[in-house]
Amino acid sequence: MSKAYDSVHIPLLQHALTRLKIPINIQQLIINIHNNRFNSVITNFGPTSSYHVQDGIDQGETITPLLWRIYYDPLITYIHSKFQGYNMSMTSLPNTQHLTYHTSVLAYMDDILWLAPNKHTL
Question: What's the burial of 68, exposed, middle or buried (CB within 10 Å: 0-12/13-18/19+)?
Fold first, then answer.
């Protein structure tokens, strides 16, 4: 396949854009680009018949990483603010400086990891 798609609920994307106070004309441009699309896939045997893309954003497009960040921001913000997550700490030698790092979620593009100290907390 030449392109891959990941399901993004377009109305939720629009809510996330509104949450970040993106101007309405830019919101409409982004939404219109991702609505009512048809596509075909390039295979070793040539392109497939066209099909209607029901819900999703294209992987590999220039704006995709930004849209993923915007789309998942409310979820990431909620998890990070409400849950303890996982704490890492270390003491450096010879300074004996104590360092602590706390995180409850890791995200890269469309991959999200929710971190917790144990299964019960998760």
Answer: buried
The residue count for the chain: 122
Burial 98-122 (b: 16+ CB within 10 A, else e): eeeeeebbebeebeeeebeeeeeee
What pTM value is reported for the model?
Answer: 0.66
Residues in Cβ contact with 99 at an 8 Å cutoff, skipping those fewer than 6 apart: 89, 90, 91, 92
> Would you list the DSSP string of 54-116?
-S-EETT-TTHHHHHHHHHHHHHHHHHHH---EEEEEE-TTT--EEEEEESEEEETTEEEE--
Residue type, 99: L
Mean pLDDT, the chain cut into blocks of 10 residues (122 residues total):
60 92 95 86 91 76 84 87 84 81 80 83 78
Residue type, 39: N
In order of 2, 64, 78, 86, the CA distances from 67 in angstroms are 20, 5, 18, 27
Cβ burial of 16 (10 Å; 0-12, 13-18, 19+) is buried
